[in-house]
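Example record used in the benchmark description.
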Amino acid sequence: MAYAFTPPEQAYLDITGSEEKFPVRRIYCIGKNYTAHVIEMGGDADRDPPVIFQKPNDAVVRNGGEIDYPVFTGNFHYEGEMVVVLKSGGHNIPVSEAASHIFGYACGLDMTRRDHQANAMANGLPWEVTKAFDQSAPIGPVTRIEDCGELTSGRITLSVDGEVRQDADMSWMIWKTDEIISKLSEQYRLMPGDVIMTGTPAGVGAVVSGNELVVHVDGLQDLKVRVGNPAG
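Model output (C-alpha coordinates):
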Protein backbone atom coordinates (compact mmCIF):
# COMPACT_ATOMS: atom_id res chain seq x y z
CA MET A 1 0.00 0.00 0.00
CA ALA A 2 1.28 3.48 -0.89
CA TYR A 3 0.42 6.31 1.48
CA ALA A 4 0.31 9.97 0.47
CA PHE A 5 2.76 10.67 3.30
CA THR A 6 4.49 8.71 6.05
CA PRO A 7 1.80 7.61 8.51
CA PRO A 8 2.23 8.45 12.21
CA GLU A 9 3.96 5.94 14.44
CA GLN A 10 1.87 3.51 16.43
CA ALA A 11 1.34 4.73 20.00
CA TYR A 12 2.43 2.14 22.56
CA LEU A 13 3.20 1.53 26.22
CA ASP A 14 6.14 -0.30 27.74
CA ILE A 15 5.54 -3.55 29.61
CA THR A 16 7.35 -4.09 32.90
CA GLY A 17 10.01 -6.79 32.63
CA SER A 18 9.56 -7.32 28.89
CA GLU A 19 10.89 -6.08 25.57
CA GLU A 20 7.39 -6.41 24.13
CA LYS A 21 5.26 -3.28 23.72
CA PHE A 22 1.55 -2.75 24.28
CA PRO A 23 0.01 -1.05 21.21
CA VAL A 24 -2.57 1.59 22.09
CA ARG A 25 -5.79 1.59 20.08
CA ARG A 26 -8.17 3.89 21.95
CA ILE A 27 -8.10 5.69 25.28
CA TYR A 28 -11.41 5.62 27.15
CA CYS A 29 -11.74 7.79 30.25
CA ILE A 30 -14.21 7.56 33.11
CA GLY A 31 -15.21 10.79 34.82
CA LYS A 32 -16.72 11.34 38.25
CA ASN A 33 -15.88 7.89 39.62
CA TYR A 34 -14.83 8.68 43.20
CA THR A 35 -17.53 10.13 45.47
CA ALA A 36 -15.34 12.79 47.11
CA HIS A 37 -14.11 14.01 43.70
CA VAL A 38 -17.69 14.26 42.39
CA ILE A 39 -18.55 16.41 45.41
CA GLU A 40 -15.45 18.63 45.07
CA MET A 41 -16.44 19.26 41.44
CA GLY A 42 -19.92 20.35 42.53
CA GLY A 43 -21.74 17.19 41.44
CA ASP A 44 -24.16 14.69 42.95
CA ALA A 45 -22.53 11.49 44.15
CA ASP A 46 -25.45 9.23 43.22
CA ARG A 47 -24.50 6.12 41.22
CA ASP A 48 -25.49 7.51 37.84
CA PRO A 49 -24.18 5.85 34.66
CA PRO A 50 -20.43 6.48 34.31
CA VAL A 51 -19.31 9.59 32.44
CA ILE A 52 -17.36 8.44 29.36
CA PHE A 53 -15.04 10.45 27.12
CA GLN A 54 -11.96 9.71 25.02
CA LYS A 55 -8.46 10.97 24.36
CA PRO A 56 -6.57 10.37 21.10
CA ASN A 57 -3.97 7.63 21.32
CA ASP A 58 -1.21 10.09 20.34
CA ALA A 59 -1.90 11.98 23.60
CA VAL A 60 0.08 9.22 25.34
CA VAL A 61 3.35 10.23 26.99
CA ARG A 62 5.13 6.96 27.70
CA ASN A 63 6.62 6.58 31.18
CA GLY A 64 6.19 10.23 32.01
CA GLY A 65 9.22 12.47 31.72
CA GLU A 66 8.61 16.08 30.79
CA ILE A 67 5.43 17.47 29.27
CA ASP A 68 4.82 21.00 28.03
CA TYR A 69 2.53 23.36 29.85
CA PRO A 70 -0.20 23.31 27.18
CA VAL A 71 -1.50 26.09 25.01
CA PHE A 72 -5.06 27.39 25.46
CA THR A 73 -5.25 27.19 29.24
CA GLY A 74 -4.35 29.15 32.33
CA ASN A 75 -5.57 26.47 34.76
CA PHE A 76 -3.78 23.18 34.06
CA HIS A 77 -4.87 20.36 36.39
CA TYR A 78 -3.62 16.89 37.27
CA GLU A 79 -5.86 13.85 37.82
CA GLY A 80 -4.00 10.76 38.97
CA GLU A 81 -5.62 7.48 37.91
CA MET A 82 -5.28 3.72 37.76
CA VAL A 83 -5.24 2.59 34.12
CA VAL A 84 -6.52 -0.73 32.76
CA VAL A 85 -5.37 -2.09 29.38
CA LEU A 86 -7.18 -4.80 27.45
CA LYS A 87 -5.94 -7.88 25.57
CA SER A 88 -9.37 -8.71 24.11
CA GLY A 89 -12.86 -7.27 24.00
CA GLY A 90 -16.27 -7.40 22.38
CA HIS A 91 -19.81 -6.07 22.81
CA ASN A 92 -21.98 -6.52 25.91
CA ILE A 93 -19.33 -8.15 28.08
CA PRO A 94 -20.87 -9.49 31.32
CA VAL A 95 -19.38 -8.13 34.54
CA SER A 96 -18.49 -11.69 35.51
CA GLU A 97 -16.30 -12.06 32.39
CA ALA A 98 -14.72 -8.60 32.33
CA ALA A 99 -11.50 -9.53 34.13
CA SER A 100 -10.68 -12.15 31.48
CA HIS A 101 -10.16 -9.30 28.98
CA ILE A 102 -7.59 -7.42 31.11
CA PHE A 103 -3.96 -7.51 29.98
CA GLY A 104 -2.65 -5.39 32.83
CA TYR A 105 -2.55 -2.12 34.71
CA ALA A 106 -0.55 1.11 34.86
CA CYS A 107 -0.42 4.49 36.58
CA GLY A 108 -1.76 7.39 34.53
CA LEU A 109 -2.55 11.08 34.45
CA ASP A 110 -5.65 12.61 32.91
CA MET A 111 -4.31 16.13 32.40
CA THR A 112 -7.08 18.69 32.09
CA ARG A 113 -7.65 22.26 30.92
CA ARG A 114 -9.86 22.97 33.93
CA ASP A 115 -10.87 26.49 32.90
CA HIS A 116 -12.40 25.20 29.67
CA GLN A 117 -13.95 22.19 31.40
CA ALA A 118 -15.79 24.51 33.79
CA ASN A 119 -17.17 26.43 30.82
CA ALA A 120 -18.15 23.21 29.03
CA MET A 121 -19.95 21.85 32.06
CA ALA A 122 -21.78 25.11 32.67
CA ASN A 123 -22.99 25.28 29.07
CA GLY A 124 -23.58 21.61 28.28
CA LEU A 125 -20.71 21.51 25.77
CA PRO A 126 -18.45 18.55 24.84
CA TRP A 127 -15.34 17.95 26.95
CA GLU A 128 -12.98 17.32 24.03
CA VAL A 129 -11.06 20.59 24.20
CA THR A 130 -10.62 20.13 27.94
CA LYS A 131 -9.29 16.56 27.83
CA ALA A 132 -8.17 15.48 24.33
CA PHE A 133 -5.11 17.63 23.71
CA ASP A 134 -1.41 17.01 23.10
CA GLN A 135 0.45 15.16 25.89
CA SER A 136 -2.70 14.93 28.00
CA ALA A 137 -2.28 11.21 28.80
CA PRO A 138 1.03 10.35 30.50
CA ILE A 139 0.96 6.62 31.30
CA GLY A 140 3.57 4.50 33.03
CA PRO A 141 4.74 0.97 32.22
CA VAL A 142 2.10 -1.75 32.15
CA THR A 143 2.23 -4.53 34.74
CA ARG A 144 0.65 -7.75 33.50
CA ILE A 145 -2.33 -8.99 35.49
CA GLU A 146 -0.45 -12.26 36.03
CA ASP A 147 2.19 -10.30 37.95
CA CYS A 148 -0.02 -8.12 40.13
CA GLY A 149 -3.41 -9.83 40.29
CA GLU A 150 -6.72 -8.12 39.63
CA LEU A 151 -6.55 -4.67 41.25
CA THR A 152 -9.78 -4.08 43.14
CA SER A 153 -8.29 -2.27 46.14
CA GLY A 154 -5.06 -0.62 47.20
CA ARG A 155 -3.75 2.86 47.73
CA ILE A 156 -3.65 5.41 44.92
CA THR A 157 -1.83 8.70 45.52
CA LEU A 158 -0.58 11.72 43.64
CA SER A 159 2.08 14.08 44.94
CA VAL A 160 3.25 17.45 43.67
CA ASP A 161 6.86 18.29 44.53
CA GLY A 162 6.76 15.66 47.27
CA GLU A 163 3.49 16.82 48.86
CA VAL A 164 0.63 14.31 48.70
CA ARG A 165 -2.42 15.94 47.11
CA GLN A 166 -4.55 12.89 46.27
CA ASP A 167 -4.81 9.89 48.58
CA ALA A 168 -7.51 7.23 48.24
CA ASP A 169 -8.18 3.52 47.90
CA MET A 170 -9.26 2.00 44.60
CA SER A 171 -12.07 0.21 46.44
CA TRP A 172 -13.71 3.64 46.73
CA MET A 173 -14.48 3.77 43.02
CA ILE A 174 -18.20 4.23 42.37
CA TRP A 175 -17.97 2.01 39.28
CA LYS A 176 -15.52 -0.87 39.74
CA THR A 177 -13.16 -1.93 36.98
CA ASP A 178 -15.21 -4.96 35.92
CA GLU A 179 -18.35 -2.83 35.79
CA ILE A 180 -16.57 -0.14 33.75
CA ILE A 181 -15.48 -2.67 31.14
CA SER A 182 -19.01 -4.06 30.95
CA LYS A 183 -20.61 -0.61 30.67
CA LEU A 184 -18.15 0.53 28.00
CA SER A 185 -18.87 -2.60 25.97
CA GLU A 186 -22.56 -1.68 25.88
CA GLN A 187 -21.67 1.40 23.83
CA TYR A 188 -18.47 0.39 21.99
CA ARG A 189 -16.91 -2.78 20.65
CA LEU A 190 -13.89 -3.05 22.90
CA MET A 191 -10.73 -4.32 21.23
CA PRO A 192 -7.20 -5.45 22.10
CA GLY A 193 -5.09 -2.36 22.70
CA ASP A 194 -7.85 -0.36 24.36
CA VAL A 195 -6.81 1.68 27.40
CA ILE A 196 -9.22 2.69 30.16
CA MET A 197 -8.48 5.48 32.63
CA THR A 198 -10.70 4.62 35.59
CA GLY A 199 -11.27 8.01 37.23
CA THR A 200 -9.53 10.20 39.77
CA PRO A 201 -9.95 10.64 43.54
CA ALA A 202 -10.52 13.94 45.31
CA GLY A 203 -7.69 16.45 45.58
CA VAL A 204 -7.26 17.61 42.01
CA GLY A 205 -5.51 20.92 41.51
CA ALA A 206 -3.46 23.19 39.30
CA VAL A 207 0.20 22.82 38.39
CA VAL A 208 2.71 25.21 36.87
CA SER A 209 5.97 24.88 34.99
CA GLY A 210 8.61 23.20 37.13
CA ASN A 211 6.24 21.07 39.21
CA GLU A 212 7.00 17.35 39.48
CA LEU A 213 4.07 14.94 39.73
CA VAL A 214 4.28 11.36 40.99
CA VAL A 215 1.37 8.93 40.66
CA HIS A 216 1.52 5.83 42.84
CA VAL A 217 -0.75 2.78 42.74
CA ASP A 218 0.00 -0.14 45.03
CA GLY A 219 1.52 -2.98 43.03
CA LEU A 220 2.47 -0.88 39.99
CA GLN A 221 5.48 1.14 38.86
CA ASP A 222 5.20 4.83 39.76
CA LEU A 223 4.66 7.44 37.06
CA LYS A 224 6.78 10.60 37.31
CA VAL A 225 6.04 13.69 35.22
CA ARG A 226 7.61 17.14 35.21
CA VAL A 227 5.70 20.11 33.83
CA GLY A 228 7.92 21.99 31.42
CA ASN A 229 7.70 25.39 29.81
CA PRO A 230 4.64 26.58 27.86
CA ALA A 231 4.25 24.84 24.51
CA GLY A 232 5.54 26.89 21.59
